[in-house]
Amino acid sequence: MKKFYRSLLTLFIGGLMTQALPLCHAETPNRTIEVHAHRFAFVPSEITLKPGETVTLHLISDDVTHSLLIPGLRINQVVSKGHPEDVIVTPSSTGDFRGECGTFCGGGHGKMLFVVHVKE
Asked: CA-CA distance, 103 to 14, in Å (whole number)?
C-alpha cells in the first residue's frame, strides 16, 4: 500500500512539473510599447521590432471600444475605454505587418491603420 501511495505521489508531482515547464521557458518581454486607440487613429500608428524580440503592446482606448487586428502576427485584441489590454508579441520573420481597428467605431473607422515593421 505504501508503494501505491508513493507511485501516486510521484505521478502527481510529475504532472505538476510538466505543467510548470512551459512557464519556465516563456519569453519575458524586454520592452513595452504603449499604443493609444482613438477615433480614428492609433498613436503611434507604426512601430519597428526585430525578429525574435518579445514586446508587450499596452493598448489603451481613449474613447470607445476599438480592437487591434493584425492577422500576420495573430493579434486580435479588443480594448475598451478604462480597460487597457496587454498583448505580447514575438515576430519570427521580417516584413511589414499591416493591421487595423477590427471593431467598428464610427465614420472614420476604415482609416484606423497600424503597421508593425520587423527588421534585422
From this structure: 44
Give the separation between CA 7 and CA 44, rounded to whole angstroms.
56
β-strand partners of 45: none
Could you tell me if 82 and 60 are in contact, meaning their C-beta atoms sit under 8 angstroms apart?
no
**Residue 28 backbone dihedrals phi, psi, to 5 degrees:** -100, 125
What is the per-residue burial (b if ≥16 Cβ within 10 Å, else e) of 55-80?
A: bbbebbbeeeebbbbbeebebeeebb
pTM, to two decimals: 0.75
Quick: pLDDT tens for 60-115: 999 999 999 999 999 999 999 999 999 999 999 999 999 999 999 999 999 999 99
